[in-house]
Amino acid sequence: MQVQGVFMRACAAARVPITCISEEDPQHLLRAAELAGASAGKSAPHPNVGCVIAQGIQVVGEGFLYGQGTRSAEIQAVSRAGEFSKGATAYLNLEPEVYHSQAYGSAVHALKEAGLARVVVGLRHPLQHLRGRAIDTLRSSGICVEVGGEELNTEGIFKEALRACQVVNAPLLYRAAYKIPFSILKFAMTLDGKIASSTGHAAWVSSELSRERVFSTRAVSDAVIVGGNTVRRDNPRLTTRHRGHLPVRIVMSRCLRLPENANLWDVSIAQTIVMTQRGVRKDFQTLLASRGVEVVEFDFLTPRAVMEYCYHRGFLSVLWECGGMLSAPAISSGVIHKVMAFVAPKIIGGSAAPSPVGELGMVEMNQALKLSDVTFEQIGPDMLISGYVHPIPNVNQSVSPAVEAATSLLDNLSSSKQPPVISFYKTWDPYGEFSNFFPHAISLSDRNGKVLVWKSVEQYYQAQKFEGVEDPLAEACVRNIKEAEGPEEAAQLGRSLARQRPDLVRPDWESAKVIVMEKALCAKFSSDPELQMLLKSTDGAVLIEASPHDLFWGAGRNGAGQNNLGCLLMKLRSRLLSGPNGSASRSTPLTASLP
Question: Thinking of the domain 178-388, which architecture would CATH place it in?
Fold first, then answer.
């Protein structure tokens, strides 16, 4: 009774309705945030999501998002809870996304059908076109929904749990607020602030345990950035040293004075992108491209320009492992959000030895950059000091000035004489249902006439690269693509084998891939009336696949791409609009040429 009395007084102080909360709520919400952490590095640019379903103190179902296009955490948790979902409470670290298609990947539909009595949400979704939609839908169906910072006061007993929900999705919150990926600057230095000796020797400043922490941080990042000096001096690999997610490796170099042979030019393990100034050393760019390294040119290469490009590419979290010459302009341009500094109990001395951050132009101590939410952690002999350059944006407010409204249909349908344009790319964006990675299963016959079910268009497309190739490696890859948890994993499998063994790609692939995609899109939209309605609602608009790097399926960064995916969708839309009663026949394939 004494514990209950303390709990009741805490509720009153937090101004939370006593009839709606329980002592177990913070514990379960913390667990949801903990589960969400397992998504890190795998779901970009989607959020890290965890779900716990409980009957009182007893957990009856759990789940977390494996990656883009996989089964949602909520669907997993409901499936595992089974009949114990009825009358239970679901704890979500983040508000679910609501799609037009309820047939596949609908977390809200699963929660509604499960018979839940209550849902506790840590954070509203930070994207405006998704924010509040799931909460309103659940409430309209009669489910009691409480939200952090609203029904659940952040200063009350939920403070720790709600903070955990913020931290686990800090990359998403920063990305939504600042329109660039969440960026961490990491460095290791001696007690006297040196990252290498005067000769540039830096192996190793920190301990092996600290380096293991760096590998783990890379594994939850979408990209790792270094400068040309780091490539020339250290010849790094920038891998995670263990199985799991491998970030894209990015080299920033204005002059491209880089070695012809470097570990980063081996793309059989992980992808490498070199970012440089337009027109610089075209012969060296050709050499890199011949080795599978992607080269991206900028009119003027700056940290801000690179981060804006990475944002449009869909990156959620970026780790900067550069030296002082690059870290200083990155900080000055406002693209660094967090710092991880490993301090080793060593002293090098000397004025020529480099420091982790170059000149910032500060002449007085009161100009120094101050970190917030600073933490200290001993890792072996080293000390890890972490802190935020900018506080984590808070979206649980009635109006969030940090989060800009996402592009909506009304934004796209302008009153000008030019045809309106609707851009799409990632599944969580407006019209994300048009993406190949949208979690919508399709059924298609193989070359032997057997009907197979594919979890997404992307999985079918990647598998078709090796269709009919009689080789054990190709056949195993097709099986792995089909069984992959989601389209991101499938795409990685297909692209990796095609890059490493181009001889295994079917010889007619270049001429067949448009037909393959056309067939998959027809199967996708023919099987779902809601997707058909969404596509038909764009009548009169130009559909653009806004990939900044794919010049075949997308429009490319400068709009010079072929936009074949957008063209196929517009062609399918015409078919849907002109068919009987405005709908396409499922049995009639799309065979006409591209518009």
Answer: 3-Layer(aba) Sandwich (3.40)
CA distance 568 to 21: 50
Is 558 within 8 Å of 312 (Cβ atoms)? no
Give the closest residue to 323 by CA, choosing from 227, 465, 202: 227
Give 243's pLDDT tier (boundaries 50, 70, 90).
low
Asked if 93 and 60 count as a contact pair (C-beta separation under 8 A), the reply is: no
| CA–CA separation, 502 and 516 (whole Å) | 19
The pLDDT-based confidence of 595 (bands split at 50, 70, 90) is: very low
Nearest CA among 27, 18, 40, 173 for reference residue 95: 173
Q: Is the pLDDT of residue 593 over 70?
A: no
d(C-alpha 189, C-alpha 204), whole Å: 10
Active site residues: 74
- Average pLDDT over every residue of 58-63: 94
Hey, how many other C-beta atoms are within 10 angstroms of the C-beta on 349? 11
Give the residue from 236, 232, 228 showing the smallest Cα distance to 276. Answer: 228
pLDDT in tens, 129-186: 888 889 999 999 999 999 887 766 656 667 888 889 999 999 889 988 899 999 999 9
In 3D space, the residue among 255, 304, 303 whose CA is nearest the CA of residue 278 turns out to be 255
CATH hierarchy code of domain 2-168: 3.40.140.10
Report the CATH architecture of 409-582: Orthogonal Bundle (1.10)
**Which residue is it, tokens 């230095």?**
189
Which amino acid, residue 63? Answer: G
Per-residue confidence at 492, pLDDT binned at 50, 70, 90?
confident
Delimit the domains of the chain by residue range.
2-168, 178-388, 409-582
CB proximity list for 437: less than 8 A, separation 6 or greater: 68, 69, 426, 427, 456, 457, 458, 486, 487, 488, 491
- The count of other CB atoms within 10 Å of the CB of residue 203 is 6
In this prediction, residues 510-522 reach a mean pLDDT of: 95
Q: What is the pLDDT of residues 286-329, one digit of tens each?
A: 999 999 899 999 999 999 999 999 998 888 899 999 988 899 99
Is the distance from CB of 434 to CB of 209 less than 8 angstroms?
A: no
